[in-house]
Specification:
Layout: H1 12-19, H2 31-34, H3 59-73
C-alpha cells in the first residue's frame, strides 16, 4: 500500500492563473477559423504565458468584495 504525497495548495495568484490559462491550442480547427478577427485587432500578444490580466478576479474574491460593499451600504 503506497501513500500519495499531499498536494501543495496554490496561492490565489497561481490558482487564478491555472483557472484562466489562455495557452491552449486548437486541434480540430485552424486557428484562423476559430479566431477570425485576430488579424484585425490592434493589440498583439505574442507570449500568452507572460501576459497578466489587469482585472484578475475569481468569483470567490468577487463575492467577498460584494459582501463588503453590501455591509458598508446597509
Amino acid at each position: 500500500m503506497s501513500v500519495e504525497p499531499r498536494k501543495k495548495r496554490l496561492n490565489k495568484k497561481d490558482a487564478y492563473k491555472y483557472m484562466t490559462r489562455l495557452g491552449w491550442d486548437t486541434t480540430y480547427q485552424k486557428e484562423e477559423d476559430v479566431f477570425p478577427y485576430l488579424k484585425m485587432e490592434g493589440i498583439k500578444i505574442h507570449d500568452w504565458e507572460a501576459w497578466e490580466d489587469p482585472f484578475r478576479m475569481t468569483m470567490d474574491s468577487y463575492w467577498k468584495l460584494q459582501a463588503e460593499k453590501d455591509k458598508k451600504l446597509y
